[in-house]
Specification:
This protein has one domain: predicted glycosyltransferase like domains (Thrombin, subunit H, Beta Barrel). Helix content is about 20%, strand content about 40%. By secondary structure, it is of the alpha+beta class. The longest helix is centred in the last third of the chain and has 21 residues. A six-stranded antiparallel beta barrel has the order 1-2-3-6-5-4. The N and C termini lie far apart (about 40 Å).
């Protein structure tokens, strides 16, 4: 049986993102977000343990946010594509900015579903 490592509640929020592994940039979109990380739909696999910068592409008036993390899982999906789980490693300042954006995106997604 696989050990559950997830921290925090997941929220099914779709946000376009860029993953930067210092070798190249990868486009993707989140399948869900939590305070601890993100599950991302990607066209390419990424190696577990790879350090990445996750850049959410959100239309805000805030400066671009770059979040540090590492790949904890990368899986091939039926029909092609990959899911990449990223565990975030945030400073207090980054965490505050992430939580603010997380809340604003979460509320806009909830409002759009009504």
């Amino acid at each position: 049986m696989r050990e559950e490592r997830r921290n925090g509640s997941r929220h099914p929020i779709r946000v376009d993102v860029v993953l930067d592994d210092d070798a190249r940039f990868h486009a993707g979109a989140t399948l869900d977000l939590s305070e601890a990380g993100a599950l991302i739909e990607s066209a390419v696999p990424m190696n577990v343990g790879t350090s990445v910068r996750l850049i959410p592409l959100i239309d805000t008036k805030r400066p671009l946010l770059e979040l540090r993390g590492r790949v904890v899982r990368s899986s091939l999906q039926r029909g092609g594509g990959h899911t990449v789980a990223v565990e975030l490693d945030l400073s207090n300042r980054e965490r505050a900015a992430y939580e603010e954006i997380f809340e604003s995106v979460s509320w806009s997604v909830r409002a759009a579903s009504f």
